[in-house]
Amino acid sequence: MIRKDDRGSATLWFVYFLPVLLVVLVLAFDLARAYAARVALKQSAALAARAAAMELDADALAGSVVTDANGNVTVTPPKLALTGNADSTFRDVLTRNTGGYGSLIRNVSADVWTVNEDPAMAKKYGTAQAPTVQTWNGYRVEMKKTGVIGLVRATVDLSPLARMILGKQALDISVITAAAPEMRP
C-alpha cells in the first residue's frame, strides 16, 4: 500500500483562502462604515427637519374659532407663518450634526421643501401645497399637512482595498425625512 505524504496541505489551504478572507473582511469593514454613516445621516436629517419645523408658527397653523357675546362663530383657517427661515435652519442644524463625523461623512448636501395646507399661503410664500409627495431613488414621503421635507445626500470614502475590488472611490448615500410642527393645545 502506497501512502501519500500530505504534510503541508493545511498551509496550501491557508494560502489559497487568505486572499478571499481578506476581501471579505475589507468589504465587511466598508459595509459597516457605510451603514454607520447612513444611520448618522438619518439621525442628523431627522433632527434638522424637527428644527426646521419649529420655524413654522404653530399658533398660526392651529387657526382659531372665536364665539362672540351674541353667539356668532368666527373661524380663522390655519395659515403658515414663517417665524424664521426653515431652509437655512435645516441646513445649519444638519451641518453642525454631521461635522463631527470627520472623514466618515463628506460632501453633505440637502434639498428642503416647506409644505403648506393653505393654497393662498403656499402661493404667497412659494412653498409646496399639501398634500404633496416627494420621491428620490425609491424613497417616498407624502406630506398631508404643513411641515418640512428634507432630502440629504453624502459620500462615504472606501478603503484602498475596497476601491480596488469595487472600482469605486466612494459610496453615495441618501436619506429623506419629514417633520411637522408641534401643535400647542
From TrEMBL:
Keywords: Membrane, Transmembrane, Transmembrane helix. The keyword Transmembrane helix applies. InterPro entries: Tad_N. Residues 8-54 form the Putative Flp pilus-assembly TadG-like N-terminal domain. The chain crosses the membrane at residues 12-32. The keyword Transmembrane helix applies. Pfam families: Tad. This is Putative Flp pilus-assembly TadG-like N-terminal domain-containing protein. It comes from Hydrogenibacillus schlegelii. The lineage of its organism: Bacteria, Bacillati, Bacillota, Bacilli, Bacillales.
